[in-house]
Design a protein that fits this description.
Order of helices and strands: HHEEHHHHHHHH
Number of helices: 10
Largest sheet: 2 strands, antiparallel
Helix content: over 70%
Mean pLDDT: 89
Distance between the termini: 53 Å
Strand content: under 5%
Radius of gyration: 22 Å
Low-confidence stretches: none
Shape: globular
Length: about 270
């Protein structure tokens, strides 16, 4: 039995490695481009390079946008610092330039996105569901078009953090312990720091609360032919989920607000 388990895990790892290989290989055809692709990716490349050359300190005003007055830089700098971190790691082993790393960055992030996609799919179904989720999540044509080598916009990092964020929340709801609450809070804050609309997973989970009441009401109408909703029964069902979700949501919103990242309501 132990040998079968080891063999099964090995097969899963090989299949996941194959998905990662496909995710990477389908995006490398544009790697030979002398610069990054398109306008938005160039903005993130330019801003990342400015931070790197300014001793990791971001400028407060962007003089090159909306010239001549310029505009203030956004607070959500996670993707810029992520590209810088990738550059630091790669340049430690090989001699390279920042533009080469910026072109490779979306490919690396998409490869990494297969991991939370796999875990989320496995959490919701089984290991085969995890592999299918990783496959379709990273090889959908829509994502491929905005995460080719050189297209260093935020699309790839959004996909990575969306899967990781949803997985972290579901894991916290299942485990209901402080370490998993902290993990979910940190992941969601990181998502927001990388993308200003990173509050979406939390907002979707919060929207499920009234949705649960509506569903139970419709269920009673259909199956029990009555309009009266048993609130105590619904509360007993929702309590194990509602309390962890409220803790994660409240703490994340408070910390996000204090850090200047806004809160869930800033998207409304």
């Amino acid at each position: 039995m132990e040998l079968n388990k080891i063999m099964s895990n090995s097969v899963n790892l090989l299949l996941l490695a194959g998905i990662i290989y496909l995710s990477v290989s389908t995006r490398l055809s544009t790697l030979a481009s002398p610069t990054v692709l398109d306008y938005d990716p160039f903005y993130f490349y330019r801003h990342s390079l400015e931070i790197l050359e300014n001793n990791m300190v971001p400028y407060k005003w962007d003089l090159l946008s909306f010239y001549p007055p310029g505009r203030p830089f956004e607070r959500f700098l996670g993707w810029e610092y992520t590209m810088i971190a990738i550059f630091k790691i790669i340049s430690f082993f090989v001699r390279t330039t920042f533009v080469e790393v910026a072109k490779l960055a979306p490919v690396i992030i998409v490869a990494l996105a297969t991991i939370p996609a796999f875990f989320l799919g496995r959490f919701l179904s089984n290991k085969w569901g995890g592999l299918a989720t990783a496959l379709f999540a990273t090889l959908t044509p829509t994502l491929i078009g905005v995460s080719m080598a050189g297209y260093c916009d935020t699309d790839a990092i959004v996909v990575f953090y969306f899967f990781l964020s949803v997985y972290s929340i579901l894991l916290a709801l299942k485990k209901r312990s402080i370490p998993f609450y902290i993990f979910a809070i940190l992941v969601n804050l990181a998502f927001v720091y990388n993308w200003g609309a990173g509050w979406l997973p939390l907002m979707l989970f919060i929207a499920l609360i009234p949705g649960m009441f509506v569903f139970r009401l419709l269920e009673d109408i259909v199956y029990q032919r009555k309009l009266k909703l048993d609130l105590r029964k619904v509360w007993d069902e929702m309590k194990p989920l509602l309390i962890p979700l409220l803790i994660i949501s409240l703490v994340t919103n408070v910390i996000g607000y204090l850090l200047g990242l806004g809160d869930c309501y800033s998207l409304l």
